[in-house]
Design a protein that fits this description.
Layout (H helix, E strand, L loop, with lengths): L27 E2 L2 H9 L5 H15 L2 H11 L8 H14 L3 H11 L2 H4 L2 H17 L3 H18 L1 H11 L1 H4 L13 H18 L7 H17 L2 E2 L2 E4 L4 E3 L12
Parallel strand pairs: 1-2
Antiparallel strand pairs: 3-4
Helix pairs in contact: 2-3, 4-5, 4-11, 7-8, 7-9, 7-11, 8-9
């Protein structure tokens, strides 16, 4: 018997070169001295910083602190600081669940605020309905919803959806597992109070949001972006304002 020929194959093995692991680009190190020198050259006046702080105190309603700050910095407030007290009493009334008191106070302050802002007025009425349900006064809640809120819901489908969601509290009760339990949270009161506060500020030709939080968010974003490219002194805690200096930035021979 003939033996089947053996086929031989010569296989040339090519050894794959070792993959060169890509290394992250080396970050530039900014010395502390150079960083502080550039901060000095930024040209931010102390008066501008003081106005920024006063803006926050006024809008957030810290009347006593604003008065003391004006005395210490010799700044003239852009608004009558006495008006802050009225605004804070209205906001506090809503946060405490005293909606009728808040409505009376805002009408005494400026009746046009509610007359020209149907969304705000509906949300105040919605908050009153929530407080009635919280208190367990079902009969009063149903009567109030039918007499005061239902007609507004018929005029605006968005209001109707919010009304139906609020009335669902009567079905689910005050259970923490309820799909509408958030309406009973303190956050709901704060939301309504914040909307009221902003409307009063706008009616008084003031800014409704303080500038300081926005600038702090910008600072966090800028530091995060720069941190991808460089090592530099940074502020990790805006409250203390303490400058955190990495060890690499303290070297005497480093150059920007």
């Amino acid at each position: 018997m003939r033996t089947a020929p053996t086929l031989s194959c010569n296989v040339t093995r090519h050894t794959a070169p070792h993959a060169t692991m890509s290394q992250a680009p080396k970050k530039e190190v900014i010395p502390r001295a150079d960083w502080e020198a550039r901060l000095e050259q930024s040209g931010v006046a102390k008066d501008d910083l003081n106005k920024l702080i006063l803006n926050y105190l006024v809008i957030e309603g810290y009347k006593d602190a604003a008065e003391v700050f004006c005395e210490e910095t010799h700044l003239a407030p852009s608004v009558n600081l006495a008006s802050i007290q009225d605004r804070m009493m209205i906001r506090t009334a809503i946060q405490d669940g005293r909606v009728d008191d808040a409505v009376d106070r805002v009408n005494d302050l400026d009746p046009d605020i509610l007359e020209t802002n149907p969304r705000l007025f509906f949300h105040l009425q919605q908050q009153k309905l929530i407080e009635l349900i919280r208190a367990g006064d079902v009969a009063a809640a149903l009567a109030f919803a039918q007499d005061e809120l239902a007609p507004r819901g018929e005029e605006n489908p968005e209001f109707l959806a919010e009304l139906e969601r609020t009335l669902a509290l009567l079905v689910f009760g005050q259970s923490a597992d309820s799909p509408v339990a958030d309406l009973l949270d303190m956050a709901q009161r704060l939301k309504t109070a914040g909307e009221m506060n902003a409307s009063i500020l706008l009616a008084q030709s003031q800014e409704k949001d303080p500038k300081l939080p926005m600038l702090l968010r910008s600072l966090a974003w800028a530091q995060s972006t720069l941190g991808e490219m460089a090592v530099f002194p940074r502020i990790d805690d805006p409250v203390s304002g303490h400058l955190v200096v990495p060890a690499e930035c303290e070297g005497p021979d480093m150059q920007f």
